[in-house]
Specification:
Blueprint lengths: L2 H8 L4 H5 L2 H13 L23 E3 L6 H8 L6 H5 L16 E7 L2 E6 L29 H5 L1 E4 L1 H5 L2 E6 L5 E2 L4 E5 L7 E12 L6 E14 L13 E8 L3 E2 L3 E4 L21 E5 L12 E4 L12 E6 L3 E3 L6 E3 L3 E11 L4 E8 L8 E3 L2
Helix pairs in contact: 3-4
Length: 371
């Protein structure tokens, strides 16, 4: 992958950037794992917990640990962390574990639990701890990774085709930047603020051939200088000022009205409430061929299929062909579990997922299913 080229498009969403930014990786790991406890009450029964064969009896929390990392030490299914803490008599808030805390694995009525040992503490008063709160594994606000989360989206093809577009730069420039004036034409409505997006690729369902929308990258924002946008026609060339820039502004970039949305402060990782069939990883922003941990992938399922933000999916790879030594015929081996991802942004017919685990190199075409 050409990291510098990808950074020019969107450094915050660059997989290379993510893999080499330790702080951001910890933010993502903490954010995803910490929210597991928040959704425990609403999680449906998923059968008995499966402990890892080498799950430790005790573990000392280290500086830099995330709850996802810790849960993966004990559980084959790390997203079921709330079940492991259920009924914990020593810890009212599992978010507040600290480096140096000892976590003990124990059993009650045939069910495994993890509890924090009552050590390394000085009680000043009930529910108060001597250690500074800043030393705890904290909940990470979503705005810490918002630049990464909002960089790409999938837009309906009809919306892109009908959107206004950059016609020219000031003084005939092909590229424009922050503070520059640009000219555009198209349909305007009554708004004056627009996000600038650049179409990257049209997405298609590999099974049906259906168009799922257009993958776009957000490159900036412009403000119309026209006083009365309602009086404009589609043939008018309109003056706008670049007020925000993520990448150089080009002729042909599309304008979409700015829409203020409310987002949850944290994710709620969970098993999907519905059965996911024939889901596939269909694209990777940036065009990498081998997908690994913390890479972003595009799924061919979205709101239409009731997929939700926070849904955790298992990644399977197709089995290899093996020659039967007796019959001489080729036999297709079963699919192999290869990783886990979490859905973090859902559109009408497609979604974005973040790879949390990968036991082997992943690729476009790998299938997804309920955990």
């Amino acid at each position: 992958m050409n990291a510098s080229k990808w950074t020019a498009i969107c450094s915050a969403a660059n997989p290379y950037f993510l893999r080499n930014n330790r702080f951001l990786r910890r933010c993502i790991g903490c954010l995803l794992a910490l929210a597991l406890t928040a959704g425990a009450a609403a999680a449906p029964s998923q059968g008995p917990l499966r402990l890892n064969p080498d799950a430790p009896d005790t573990y000392i929390v280290q500086a830099g640990d995330t709850l996802w990392d810790i849960s993966a030490l004990f559980l084959s299914d790390p997203w079921r962390w709330p079940d492991l803490w259920q009924g914990n008599p020593h810890l009212d808030n599992p978010h507040l574990i600290y480096p140096g805390d000892q976590l003990n694995l124990f059993w009650a009525d045939g069910v495994p639990y993890v509890a924090r040992a009552a050590q390394h503490e000085v009680k000043l008063s009930p529910a108060m701890r001597a250690s500074p709160l800043a030393l705890a594994i904290p909940p990470i606000p979503r705005d810490e990774i918002e630049p990464f989360l909002r960089q790409h989206r999938v837009v309906e093809t009809s919306l892109i085709e009908g959107a206004s577009y950059i016609l020219a730069g000031d003084s005939g420039r092909l590229l424009s930047g922050l503070g520059d004036r640009v000219y555009a034409k198209g349909r305007w409505g009554g708004t004056r603020r627009f996000r600038l997006v650049r179409p990257l690729d049209t997405l298609y369902d590999p099974q049906t051939g259906e168009s799922l929308g257009v993958l776009v990258v957000d490159v900036g924002e412009v403000m119309m200088e026209q006083a009365d946008p309602a009086s404009l026609t589609e043939d008018d060339a309109v003056k706008l000022r670049v007020t925000e820039m993520r990448s150089e502004i080009r002729i042909g970039d599309r304008l979409l009205p700015v829409v203020d949305t409310v987002v949850d402060p944290v994710f709620q990782p969970k098993a999907p409430a519905i059965t996911i069939d024939d889901a596939t990883m269909i694209a990777v922003p940036g065009g990498v061929t081998q997908i690994g941990v913390l890479d972003i992938v595009v799924l061919n399922r979205g709101e239409r299929e009731s997929l939700q933000v926070g849904d955790v999916l298992v990644i399977d790879q197709a089995g290899q062909l093996a020659k039967d030594p007796v019959t001489g015929k080729s036999v297709l081996l079963p699919e192999v579990r290869a990783g886990v991802l979490i859905v973090f942004s859902v559109f009408e017919r497609a979604s974005f997922g973040l790879v949390l685990e990968a036991t082997r190199p992943l690729s476009v075409g790998d299938t997804l299913r309920n955990p």
